[in-house]
């Protein structure tokens, strides 16, 4: 296929694509709050796994005595290459023939190209969000698709993935306040930092809002409410320095089947939004070497989109590509627990 600029330049399409990805991250695929996008001028990532533990204090020394020796945090070094992802869509021979008798053929093709650009990078953003969900809840990312097989384990403490399944079905006898307090205490013991957010599906949040223990704790009245509003629940949790509940129920179609991005039976305790936990790293594709793309040196990491033309049959293609992976450098700042029976 031959790169063309008849309908839009690669720079225009790539800029449009990156704006579309940012919009998705702000309004739909919001796990980027904890694994925000960042660009690197490389294909490789390197970091110490098992981060997010307690800070080791230095020792005082006597005058004229030798300094003590520090130990680098992290139990192992993880490194690898960011994997590529790409997708293309055609304006077919048939579609072009149908358009050629109109006075606005070029505009119609151009509209299709920009629409296809948004669709293509939306698909890439959806796959990246699936990887983010896996990274947050499993502290690992596994690829098993399109003849690509690979996995990276971010080496979270085993105790931060709770082995016992918590049953909050019985809203009269279950004690989610105690469970949350125990998990927070565990994280503080292991890392010195308390989680700030509890990410969960709406159905688990509804169970918390109608839980008798929490409802009774929310009031000094003789009769407790039967259900709390989400802001009332969060006010109660904040009063006791427990994580704020936020819900996430996004779904995508992956390999022909609709699925949730995060598990429907688990919660994740997470730090404040930002890059303390990790980042989503966008590398530099080979298209950056093509001067026709015209992206400045500081803009080379990220998604690339271009138009191409094939001759047999004559087809105009829009192709989006990126090199990207979420990386959790401080996995111990998260904890996940499975909640059954809801």
Query: Sheet with the most strands?
Result: 6 strands, mixed
Total beta strands: 17
Q: Pairing-aware structural class of the strands and helices?
A: alpha+beta
Strand content: 25-35%
Question: Can you characterise this structure?
Answer:
The structure is a single chain. This protein is an alpha+beta fold. Helices cover 29% and strands 28% of the residues. The protein has seven helices and 17 strands. The strands form five sheets. Strands 1, 2, 5, 14, 15 and 16 form a six-stranded mixed beta sheet that branches. α1 crosses α3. 35% of the residues are buried.
Concise summary:
With 342 residues, the chain is of the alpha+beta class. Helix content is 29%, strand content 28%.
List the helices and strands and how they pair.
Layout: E1 2-4, H1 10-27, E2 37-39, E3 44-49, E4 76-81, E5 84-91, H2 93-99, H3 105-138, E6 140-145, E7 148-153, E8 166-167, H4 176-191, E9 197-200, H5 202-209, H6 212-217, H7 230-239, E10 244-247, E11 251-254, E12 257-260, E13 266-270, E14 278-282, E15 304-311, E16 314-328, E17 335-340
Parallel strand pairs: 2-14, 8-17, 9-10
Antiparallel strand pairs: 1-15, 3-4, 5-16, 6-7, 9-13, 11-12, 13-17, 14-16, 15-16
Helix pairs in contact: 1-3
